[in-house]
Inverse folding.
């Protein structure tokens, strides 16, 4: 199963430069990296990134991630939380997540 991380451009650039990331400010504050499933990405975008341009979507394979926990969050849904740095080697693919007139254009996530 795939999980997704959304980064703002400066966070993504730092991740590319360093090959690792402790996450965005919310991740640092909470002590883990927030990820979303494909079904959860639209809600995450609406709640935390509405109207934000310059986002990047990173895909990760949950079967290969160490220190991943599924924990209840928004609405009681189980969300994937990564309790370690995100590494460049964890990423299957990444792409820009453009902001269109009706919101973010996610395309196919599966």
């Amino acid at each position: 199963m795939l999980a997704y991380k959304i980064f703002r451009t400066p966070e993504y650039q730092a991740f590319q430069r360093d090959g690792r990331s402790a996450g965005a400010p919310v991740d640092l504050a909470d002590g883990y990296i927030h990820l979303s499933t494909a079904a959860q990405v639209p809600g995450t975008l609406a709640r935390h990134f509405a109207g934000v341009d310059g986002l990047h979507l990173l895909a990760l394979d949950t079967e290969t991630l160490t220190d991943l926990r599924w924990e209840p969050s928004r609405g009681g849904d189980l969300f994937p939380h990564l309790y370690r740095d995100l590494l460049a080697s964890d990423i299957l693919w990444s792409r820009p997540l453009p902001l269109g007139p009706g919101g973010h254009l996610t395309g196919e996530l599966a």
The two ends are 8 Å apart (CA to CA). The chain has a mean pLDDT of 93. The CA atoms of residues 60 and 91 lie 5 Å apart.
